[in-house]
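User: I would dearly like some help making sense of a protein record. This is the protein in question:
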Amino acid sequence: MKPGHFTISVWFVSLFVFCATTTGLAAEWRTFGTVSYDWRGESVPYDFVLRVPTDYDEGDDFTQLEIIRHGEVVFTVTDEDGITKYSQAIENRDIKKITGSNLLHSEHLLMVPTIKGRSRFPLLFLFGRAYASQPGSLHVISLSYDGVPKEILSLRNFDLYNLADLNNDSVPELIGKKCLSQSFKEGFLTYDPFSVYRFGDTATSPMIFDLALTREYNKANYYGWAGPNCREDLVVVLHPPGGGKPVIMDAEKAKPLLEK
């Protein structure tokens, strides 16, 4: 075989593999829904394309979001556990207040004009499904000043409770729980504190877990403070034997109370 023929053959095989691979990838996904919105206010809409694998059998959820502008994909996020309707993921009434002002005609994508963080553009929220005692995932996507979206917070498990300015800097903090409280006997709860995340210095800076704000928020709004992590070796006793406010106790020391 002449050298030129070998080169053409290799090129043909490579082209065939590329085309087959591309076709295979395209065939693996189907479009779940599409929403358009002029995110920057420049009369050039962004297309939010919701996708699922062709064999995905959870009818109310999708697993991949592509954001397209000028015909090009500018952002992609994938959540294999599934992104659910925000009305099913949001249960706390403080957060439910904001869902009525959603800028997108979507039951899955939540974009609220009054929550802007460090950016003048609204933020996009995606919520995953809860499983057993674990809340679903949370994705927060911000738009940079050059028009490129960026995920500034991605949490595998987070139950969003509220957005409030806790440090008086005119920028809201994000408040929620990484675990769902469990009642294993009347008057006894697992220790599942709140967590507070604050925005970074710029529109697309990653959000930051703030330990100091978390501690103060739990002291004021939870049953006390025993660290930032959910713990099974601690219990919240809602009705202590001597009366008074609920107390956080070592689980072993609380056993006599559980047996009564």
